[in-house]
Each structure stands twice: as C-alpha cells, then as structure tokens.
Amino acid sequence: MAITINIYYSGTNGNARKFAEEMISSGIVDKIRAEEGNLKYEYFFPMNDNETVLLIDSWENQKALDIHHKSPMMEKIIDLREKYDLHMRVERYVSAEPDNSTDEKYIRK
Asked: What average pLDDT does range 68-89 have in this prediction?
C-alpha cells in the first residue's frame, strides 16, 4: 500500500522555485530518491501560480516514510524551508489496489 504526499510549497519572490532548485543542486533530491522505499520524488510548477511548487513524494509504505522522516535529509529540508520562508499545504493519499479496467479506453499509451 503506497503512500503519496503532495506538498505545495508557497513563498514570495520566486523562493519556492529557488528552494526546489537548491534541493536538486545540493544533491538532497538524489539522496532521497536513493532511500529504500522511495517511489517518487518530483517537483512540478503550477501554471496558474508562480509562487508555488508542488512536490509529489511517494513511498512504498508508512515504515519507509517514517525512516525518511528520521533521516539526516529532513534537517536539511527544514533548514532550506526556513531559508526560503516557505509555507506548506499537504495532501496525503494511500493507494488501493488499482482496477483500471473501466479506465483503459480513456488512457492513451
């Protein structure tokens, strides 16, 4: 049962984008992606809001997420959020076994 967390980082003066750029350039993102149980760690930029960055963060299970939260990367992430004075809105989703049979005709592969 995978856990996906959407984190919307918002700031001013382009700080959310600067935060994401520093997360990538500092190597933190690569380290997180290499953690056992990480399924996805990707930043996206909403077209209608230049001051927000969306992080889609997905983990195999709660145990993997708990280990990540105790990792040294979390302190670095917190420090960068403070540096860029970001605020967060968080959505959490737990996956169920997918049944895409009724959706297949709408999915172009």
From this structure: 96
